[in-house]
């Protein structure tokens, strides 16, 4: 999974992506429901939770001002995202949480963004690479406005789980 950036009170404070903020509550509950975790999520980096067949990173490595990274920050962090992706030689699926993450993954993998437009629960089979799945970001804003519901988010993970179970 590729998120936007560490949250100020979440990952930046705890050291684990999405831990300690609202987005993490929804993300980790959904990961658990579809068998991508072992242990209990306690919103702390030392809660004993382990990811199973999953890894979480961000398009932007540092907390951007007002949680809105600009192009220069995204570009400066691209080598970090490249190394994260390269560290997974058996990578089958990348889940991009939000448009910035989606576009960052495409650019990192040398793909034209126009060829693979963002859409919630849309899958793109990338040439010579993993399948890119897009979802609205699981932020409090997106869930409060009902742009993303728990059901919609779970549908994304159900499709990913189904795809991985066939491999």
In short, what is this structure?
The strands form three sheets. A three-stranded mixed sheet has the order 5-7-6. The chain has a two-stranded parallel sheet with strand order 1-4. A two-stranded antiparallel ribbon has the order 2-3.
- How many helices does DSSP assign? 6
Tally the beta strands: 7
Any idea what the radius of gyration is?
15 Å
Strand content: 5-15%
Query: Could you say how many structural domains there are in total?
Result: 1
The assigned CATH architecture is: 3-Layer(aba) Sandwich
CATH-defined topology? Uracil-DNA Glycosylase, subunit E
Extract low-pLDDT stretches.
none
> What is the helix/strand order?
EHHEEEHEHEEHH
Largest sheet: 3 strands, mixed
* Average pLDDT number: 92
Structure description:
This protein has a single domain, classed as 3-Layer(aba) Sandwich (Uracil-DNA Glycosylase, subunit E), CATH 3.40.470.10. The longest helix is centred in the middle third of the chain and has 16 residues. The chain has 6 helices and 7 strands; from the N terminus they run E-H-H-E-E-E-H-E-H-E-E-H-H. The chain is an alpha/beta fold and 167 residues long.
């Amino acid at each position: 999974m590729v998120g936007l950036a560490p949250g100020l009170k979440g990952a930046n404070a705890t050291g684990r992506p999405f831990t300690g903020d609202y987005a993490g509550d929804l993300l980790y509950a959904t990961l658990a429901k579809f068998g991508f975790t072992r242990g209990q999520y306690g919103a702390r980096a030392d809660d004993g939770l382990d990811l199973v067949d999953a890894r979480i990173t961000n398009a932007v490595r540092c907390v951007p001002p007002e949680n809105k990274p600009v192009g220069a920050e995204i570009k400066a962090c691209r080598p970090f995202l490249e190394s994260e992706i390269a560290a997974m030689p058996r990578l089958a699926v990348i889940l991009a949480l939000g448009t910035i993450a989606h576009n960052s993954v495409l650019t990192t993998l040398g793909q034209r963004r126009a060829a693979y437009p963002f859409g919630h629960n849309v899958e793109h089979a990338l040439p010579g690479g993993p399948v890119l799945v897009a979802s609205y970001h699981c932020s409090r804003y997106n869930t409060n406005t009902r742009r993303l519901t728990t059901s919609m988010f779970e549908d994304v993970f159900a499709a990913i789980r189904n795809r991985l179970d066939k491999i």
